[in-house]
Specification:
- It is a single chain.
- It is built from 9 helices and 8 strands.
- It is α/β, with parallel strands linked by helices and 263 residues long.
- Helix 4 runs parallel beside helix 5.
- The relative contact order is 0.15.
- Bound molecules: NADP nicotinamide-adenine-dinucleotide phosphate.
């Protein structure tokens, strides 16, 4: 990677995202851009990270990631190259909700936003290679039903919708890795750690790890720790773990097409 790099981190006003942004900002030659939906929180988070790291190149951009239109706007006002994209923002609302665009909110935020951010921002990634996309997923994953991605047929349950979304994040990492390998862009997924947060509390969990522990594997991946040839894989605690979901190439492709259809 070049000396001066730029990183974009979603969900950086949350527990793990802030620690990821702080970890990336530890190199004060790096510009770190937080994507947030709450301006006050974003301002406070940027100030905290600047104070703690001494990196004045930390800033934020506003976007409601559950909306495709907001992601398109965000990308259209972006300037300059992007070297690292960390998709991390996610939610676990107890009741079924819909985005302003009428899409079930976990699917819109946890899955479509990851898909759309990669689509929108990889064109900014240098053709010289070495750029990294990190999709923060989870070991807590499964139950994906392609014919009911938005829980219209099934009764909504935030745990089931969450597990489905994290399975999808892992599968989309493989799909994008295959599509972007020729551009030298690496796309990997990981489990961060078990951290106390709004998201985990909504699922009835606490979390025994610190945000910094949760950020360790995502930051390590973002900085190329897995090696230049590592792409399309799933990691836990800095170790590659075989992902059965991603081996199902037919479902990977059908999921990619389903996301594409949302535009
Ligand atoms: N915590 C765990 O134990 C755990 C375990 C496994 C995986 N993970 C994964 O780690 C990631 C981070 O989770 P966390 O525990 O740190 O969650 P968190 O503290 O609840 O943070 C979630 C972040 O996402 C943002 N966000 C939600 N909806 C958004 C939207 N529509 N537009 C823009 N931003 C939005 C939130 O913004 P606001 O601050 O405005 O709400 C917040 O910054 C998630 O991908 C999660 O699946 C977490």
């Amino acid at each position: 990677m070049p000396n001066r790099t730029c990183a974009l981190v979603t969900g950086a006003t949350g527990a793990i995202g802030e620690a990821i942004a702080r970890g990336l900002a530890a190199d004060d030659t790096r510009e770190v851009v937080l994507v947030a939906r709450n301006r006050d929180k974003a301002q406070r988070t940027v100030q905290r990270i600047q104070r703690e790291t001494g990196n004045v190149r930390v800033r934020f951009e506003m976007a409601d990631l559950s909306r495709g239109g907001a992601i398109r706007d965000l990308a259209s006002r972006w300037q300059g190259p992007l070297h690292i994209l960390v998709n991390n923002a996610a939610i676990t609302p107890p009741r079924r909700e819909q985005s302003a665009e009428g899409v079930e909110l976990q699917f819109a935020t946890n899955v479509l936003a990851y898909f759309r951010m990669i689509r929108a921002f990889t064109p900014y990634m240098p053709a010289t290679g070495g750029a990294q996309v990190v999709n923060v997923a989870s070991y807590w994953a499964g139950g994906l039903e392609l014919d009911d991605l938005e829980f219209r047929r099934r009764r909504y349950n935030n745990d089931a919708a969450y597990r489905q979304s994290k399975q999808a994040d892992r599968m989309l990492s493989t799909a994008f890795a295959q599509r972007l390998v020729d551009k030298g862009i690496r796309v990997n997924a990981c489990h961060p750690g078990d951290v106390n947060s709004n998201l985990s509390n909504n699922l009835g969990f606490g979390g025994h790890q610190s945000p910094e522990e949760g950020a360790d594997t995502p930051v390590w991946l973002a900085l190329g720790g897995a090696g230049v040839n590592a792409t399309g894989h799933y990691f836990e605690k800095r170790r590659m773990v075989p992902c059965g979901f991603s081996k199902d190439q037919d479902t990977v492709e059908r999921l990619f097409e389903a996301c594409e259809a949302f535009g």
